[in-house]
């Protein structure tokens, strides 16, 4: 009886995933199919749900990008358009609880580390961290950024003040920048230092 209940529960969860848009493109599709079959799921339902819910969103975006390039738009400009649009969507629909759930899967996802290598994405992360100061994923990412030498990019005191280690590195960078600056930059650097301290 308990096994039947578990089988039904797993099937229900899998069907919910199969019913989501473009799930066939997700990396966990094969593991989900295996789980579904292990718990008595029917193959015809998998095929039906995956095909009915395939909207080809990523493929359509790639096709549109290729068309833009064919019309003469520079590939770098197309990439910038896509990145800006993605950032707008992420900022608009960001959900801290969902973001924090990435740690439930275990380990840091490679895409998060990849994002920290690009200034556009780092700027977005700083902006989101200011807006959602209690988000574990964003706080973790800020620490990653500071550990990889990007503390000079953190201009928001609330973001820096979230973690003592981050604040210390930002403060040290600001002090060093003030010491190393030319006399005509002192006023601006001292103002940054005052903001950082107080």
Automatic annotation (TrEMBL):
Q: Please give the chief subcellular localization of this protein.
A: nucleus
Any one GO MF term held by the record is: RNA binding
The organism is Adineta steineri
One BP term from GO: negative regulation of transcription elongation by RNA polymerase II
Describe the family membership recorded for this protein in Swiss-Prot or TrEMBL.
Answer: Belongs to the NELF-D family.
Pfam families xref list: TH1
The keyword Thylakoid is annotated on this UniProt entry = no
Gene Ontology CC annotations of this record: NELF complex
Location in the cell: Nucleus
Keywords in alphabetical order, please: Nucleus, Repressor, Transcription, Transcription regulation
* Protein name from the UniProt record: Negative elongation factor D
Q: Which domain of life is it from?
A: Eukaryota
